[in-house]
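Shipment paperwork, digital attachment
Item: protein structure file
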Amino acid sequence: MARAMFEYTKTVLKKVSFDVSLFCKELEKALQRLLPYEIEELKIFINSLVQQNPELDKCLIYLEK
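Attachment content:
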């Protein structure tokens, strides 16, 4: 079940990557839901998204908490 949540989170983040504020909100929610090892995997995924959409780098501050 937890793996399904991780995959769902990735899908949602991809879909909202056009809007920085919406992306940040979804990222905050994901960080509350996911397990610690999934958050580490999510960081890798987010970094690849940021390379494609540099404006999303404003949301990286949430990953530092």
